[in-house]
């Protein structure tokens, strides 16, 4: 039986080029390079933690679950929105330093930490809570068909990481645009048969406005970067189609 030694897991070094900015100290942001030993299975988050713990305790970033569940370590890694804990160093182009920046489209608070208040406000704006317009048909529970649950299965996985909004050009240029994450969240409730037709109609009216559904350019950026495989674009397209259908019905 062979035993794994440190040499088996040591894969040379990797250099990270990390965005730095402390508003109280720095006039401008800058990049700082760190080289560390690369280990088998190392993620970008592992590398950042190693740097913080062994080289530079001032480096600031958010993280929590380390398993793509909490959404707190979304960053712009080598030109793409990703979760640091979900990104293997080995999957990146290591011929040049790995560039790590805060999420674009959001204000930087410090180093890799961005202000997510605007993102949360957009999420809240679609009233992301269950609002049935009737009493349950039987007993105390609202029953949902298996098929209806399956329809919203993927969207339910949203972890509020903000990767999609950060990749969305209209969201970056328009603070009033509901944005892909909130529209996908709205879809989760719009499709839930337990709320009833009245709530469904009210939800559609809430989104059927120029800074809502119609601000989307359907360019799929949000869908491409979502670490949970959600497609806000398709959700938006489906709700837009429904809004158009209703308008046509009205004019008949
Ligand atoms: S598809 Fe729509 S919501 Fe998604 S990134 Fe493009 S414009 Fe934004
Ligand atoms: S839809 Fe995807 S990218 Fe957007 S916040 Fe949710 S999990 Fe993150
Ligand atoms: S640390 Fe929780 S999603 Fe990455």
If you had to describe this structure to a student in words, what would you say it looks like?
The chain has 252 residues and is of the alpha+beta class. 35% of the residues lie in helices and 15% in strands. The strands form two sheets. The chain has a five-stranded mixed sheet. Strands 6-7 form a two-stranded antiparallel sheet. A hairpin with a 2-residue loop joins strand 6 and strand 7 (113-114). The protein is elongated and about 60 Å long. The model has no long low-confidence stretch (mean pLDDT 94). It binds iron/sulfur cluster (2 copies) and FE2/S2 (inorganic) cluster. One iron/sulfur cluster binds at residues 158-164, 181, 184, 226, 228, 230, 232.
Strand element count: 7
Strand order of the largest sheet: 2-1-5-3-4
Give me the Rg, rounded. 22 Å
Classification by helices and strands? alpha+beta
Helix content: 25-40%
Q: Which ligands accompany this protein?
A: iron/sulfur cluster, FE2/S2 (inorganic) cluster
Helix-strand pattern: HEEHEEEEEHHHHHHHH
Distinct helical segment count = 10
Mean pLDDT: 94
Sheet with the most strands?
5 strands, mixed
């Amino acid at each position: 039986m062979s035993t794994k030694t440190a040499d088996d897991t040591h894969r040379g070094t990797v250099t990270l080029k990390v965005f730095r900015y402390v508003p109280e100290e720095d006039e401008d942001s800058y990049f700082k390079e760190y080289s560390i030993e690369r280990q088998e299975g190392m993620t970008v988050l592992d590398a950042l933690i190693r740097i913080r713990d062994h080289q530079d305790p001032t480096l600031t970033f958010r993280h929590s679950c380390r398993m793509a569940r909490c959404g707190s370590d979304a960053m712009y890694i080598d030109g793409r929105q990703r979760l640091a804990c979900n990104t293997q160093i080995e999957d990146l182009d290591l011929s040049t330093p790995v560039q790590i920046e805060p999420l674009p489209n959001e204000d930087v608070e410090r180093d890799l930490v961005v202000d997510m208040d605007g993102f949360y406000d957009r999420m809240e704006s679609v009233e992301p809570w269950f609002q049935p317009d009737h009493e349950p048909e039987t007993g105390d529970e609202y029953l949902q068909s298996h098929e209806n649950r399956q329809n919203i299965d993927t969207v339910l996985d949203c972890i509020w990481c903000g990767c999609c909004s950060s990749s969305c050009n209209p969201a970056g240029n328009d603070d009033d645009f509901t944005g892909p994450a909130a529209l996908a969240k709205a879809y989760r409730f719009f499709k839930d048969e337990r709320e009833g037709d009245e709530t469904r109609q009210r939800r559609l009216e809430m989104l059927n406005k120029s800074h809502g559904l119609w601000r989307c350019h359907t360019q799929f950026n949000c869908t491409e970067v979502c670490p949970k495989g959600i497609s806000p674009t398709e959700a938006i397209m489906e709700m837009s189609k429904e809004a158009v259908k209703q308008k046509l019905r009205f004019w008949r």
